[in-house]
Amino acid sequence: MRYIDIGVLPVQENKSKKKKRIILSGLMIIFATVVVYLGYAFYWPISAVVGQILKNPGVALSFFRQPAGELKSTDGKTNILLLGIDKRTNVPYTYFVSGGTQKRNGFLSDTIIVASIDQNTKQVSLISIPRDTWVAIPGWSGISASSGKINSAYSLGATEGYPGGGLELAERVVSEHLGLTIHYGVRIDFEGFKKAIDTLGGINVVVEKSFDDYQYPLEGKEKVDCSDYSCRFGHIHFDAGPTHMDGLTALKFVRSRSGTNGEGSDFARARRQQRVIQAFFKKSTSIGNLLDPVKLNKIFRDFGQAVESDFDLAAIPQTIKLSKEINLDNVRTFVLDPSSGVMRHPEAGSYGGAYVIVPKRSWDEVRTKIKEFLSNVAGASK
User: Fold this and answer.
1) Residue range(s) defining the domain that contains residue 248
2) Residue 245 falls within a domain, yes or no?
3) Does 364 map to a domain?
4) What are residue 373's phi and psi, to 5 degrees?
5) Quick count: other Cβ atoms within 10 Å of Cβ 273?
6) pLDDT in tens, the chain (382 residues)
7) Is residue 126 part of a domain?
8) Helix, strand, or coil here: 224?
C-alpha cells in the first residue's frame, strides 16, 4: 500500500504563497520608489506650469484649444528673440519705495539675438543686433515715443509699465525695425545663463582666436574706489581651439569686449555669443537632456526670476518635437554691424556724443537684407 504524507502539501502551498508575497512586496517597493523619484523630479516643472496658468489663465485655454501643440510661425519660420540682460546678483529685480509701492529696476540688454527656425527645412539662423543700434521706441499710455539704443527697450518697458512688460516691448522694437514677426521671447540674466550651462554639464565651444582681456569687469567691484579704476577689472585668457566651458567660463567668453587679437569689439563679441548659443542649443536639445527629469527639475527649481519667457503651453509639444529635428551642425549666422554693408557709424556729435550704429541708407534696406539672409538668397551674409 502506498502512503501519502498529507502534511507535506500545505507546507508547499505556504511556501508558494510566501514567495508570491515577497515578489509582490518587492514590486510595490520598486513602484513606490519610482513614484517618489518622479514626483521629486517633476515637482518643480509641474508647479512652474501651474504658476504660469495662475498668472495667465489664457495659457491653459490655448492649450485646450490647440491640443496638437502648434508652434506659431510666419511663412513657415518661427522667430524667437533671445535677450541677455546685465543684471548683477547684488541688484534685485524689484524694490519698495515710501508708501509700500513696488518698483522695478531696469536692466540693459547685453545680448540681443533673433533665432529663426524654418519648420520646413529645419534650418536655424541667428541674427545678432548690436546693443548700440539706434532705434525708434514707441510710446504708450503716459509714456511718449522716443529714440535710443536698442538695448534700453527691455529696461524701459519693465520700469515704465509697458503692457506685457519689457520683453514684449523689446519684441515689438526688434520686429518693427527688422521686418520680422517675433513669435516668442526669452530673457535671461547672468546667473540664469551660468546655471543653464552648468545644469547641462557645460558646453563645448570652438574658440576661433586666442585672446586676452585685461579689462574684464569683476562682479561686485563695479563701484570700488581706486585711482585708476584698475581694481574693478581682471584678466581673462582664452586659447584658440575646442574648449569645454562651464557657466562662468562661458559668461566671460560672451561678455568680454576689450580682448586682444581683434576680439575687442561688440561685433566680435556678437559672433562669440552666437557660437555659445549654437553650443547650448546642441547640448540642450540632445535626447538625453530633453528626457532627463532631474535636469528639468533643477532648471525649473533654480532659475526663478533669472529666466523670463512668453512661450505658452500649447507650444511645448511641438517645440520639443522640432528641437529633435533641427540641424544644429549647419547654423547660419548674421551680425547687423557695418561689415553687413547696411549699417554705419555716424559722427558722434549727431547723437550727443554717443557711440551708435544706424542704417547706412534706410531701415527698408536693412529689412531687405534680413529677408535675403533668411531666404538663403545668394549674396546674403553668413
Assistant:
1) 70-375
2) yes
3) yes
4) -60, -45
5) 25
6) 444 454 444 545 566 666 666 666 656 555 544 444 444 444 444 444 444 444 444 444 444 444 456 789 999 999 999 999 998 888 888 889 888 888 888 899 999 999 999 999 999 999 999 999 999 999 999 899 999 999 999 999 999 999 999 999 999 999 999 999 999 999 999 888 998 899 889 999 999 999 999 999 988 777 788 877 788 899 999 999 999 999 999 999 999 999 999 999 888 999 999 999 999 988 877 756 555 655 655 555 556 678 888 887 667 777 777 877 887 778 899 999 999 999 999 987 788 888 999 999 999 999 999 999 999 743 444 4
7) yes
8) coil
Phi and psi at 363, nearest 5°, equal -70, -25
* Ramachandran angles phi, psi of 305, nearest 5°: -75, -10
Which pTM was predicted?
A: 0.77
Flag whether 48 is in a domain: no
> What is the number of domains present in the chain?
1
- For residues 333-362, one letter each, b for 16 or more C-beta atoms within 10 angstroms of the residue's C-beta and e for the rest, the string is bbbbbeebebbeeeeeeebeeeebbbbeee
Partnered with residue 147 across adjacent β-strands are 136
Angular region, 52: left φ>0, alpha ψ -120 to 50, beta rest? alpha
For the domain that residue 143 is a member of, what is the CATH number?
3.40.630.190
